[in-house]
Amino acid sequence: MAKPFLSIERLTQKFPDGAGGTLTVFENASFGIEKGEFVCILGHSGCGKSTIMNVLAGLAEPSSGVVKMDGFEVSGPSLDRGVVFQNYSLLPWLSALKNVTFGVRARYPDWSKAKVEAHGRDYLAMVGLEGDVVHRKPSQLSGGMRQRVSIARAFANHPKLLLLDEPFGALDALTRGTIQEELLKIWSKTEQTVFMITHDIDEAILLADRILLMTNGPFARVAEAVEITIPRPRNRTEIVDHPNYYAIRNHLVHFLGHRSKELAGQQGDGEAQSPVSVRIDQPQSQSEDEEPVPPLRAVND
After folding, report:
1. 6-80+160-279 has which CATH code?
2. Does the bond joining 218 to the residue before it have cis omega, within 30 degrees of 0?
3. Which of 55, 204, 237, 246 is least crowded, fewest Cβ atoms below 10 Å from its Cβ?
4. Cis ω for the linkage preceding 233 (within 30 of 0)
5. CA distance to 34, 40, 85, 267, per residue, from 166 (Å)
6. Which letter does DSSP use for residue 195 in this model?
7. CB-CB neighbours of 294 under 10 Å
């Protein structure tokens, strides 16, 4: 059986507990992500989501285990892995455009200055930033605009793996929804592999091909991999009408509200801890022979 594009194999992370012992955050976590797949991971604070993200980015070394991407072991940061953080992490002395082209020049040193700039402008336009705004520095941009620049910068470098660490967590609901849609548009064009941390269940259902569910720590594990059986393209205002939407949502809510605690702290037996695959596919609620249910409408008193 062929290995997946991104392979996490028996990953374990332990930290000193401050009392002379060790705290095992997760142990022998094993899962895979296919090329071009959009995967979100959900779990309560402290379960190790960000630790897994840092290991995938090459920003942290695991206590044991290995991460392989495209057949090669991940070690240290690389232009093949782009990261978008919640706090934007833009270079404050550079304009929006130069924040994007800074990485593009490193990725493609043989490109001309004009080609690099045109490439940067193209990706900023994809996230809705054009005209004079591309010459503003981060301090002159709103929070939503800064995050748009971060997303454009990450995609413009053409990484093999894009890592998103709660990229919309600090944004208001309207801005978050707009940028989610722009992210989906770019991803559908580039077909890059995406691994994203989020606490927002509805966001995960909108964006992901699969959602990984983690139990509470310590000894947390990726317990389930839930397939999102809602066809693409997806729209925030329309997916709620799909018969699978609330069935999937209720499963996620139940896991995070109950089962993540019930399964917490269960020390493994030394074997690889792989998630159980879950597929929820509800039949259409209305047969062809049934009379259609009239839509709800507003009634004035």
Report:
1. 3.40.50.300
2. yes
3. 237
4. yes
5. 21, 10, 7, 28
6. E
7. 6
| Chain centre to alpha carbon of residue 70 | 19
Beta carbons within 8 Å of 141's beta carbon, 6+ residues apart: 96, 133, 149
Q: Which amino acid is at 86?
A: Q
Beta-sheet strands, E only, within 156-238: 161-165, 193-197, 210-214, 222-227
pLDDT at 296: 52
Handedness of CA 65, 220, 169, 35 (dihedral sign): positive
The structure tokens listed for 221 are 């594990």
Domain boundaries, the chain: 6-80+160-279, 90-158
Beta bridge partners, 213, equal 42, 224
Expressed in percent and rounded to 5, the helix, strand and coil fractions of the chain are: 35, 20, 45
Q: How many CB atoms are located within 10 Å of the residue 80 CB?
A: 16
pTM of the model: 0.88
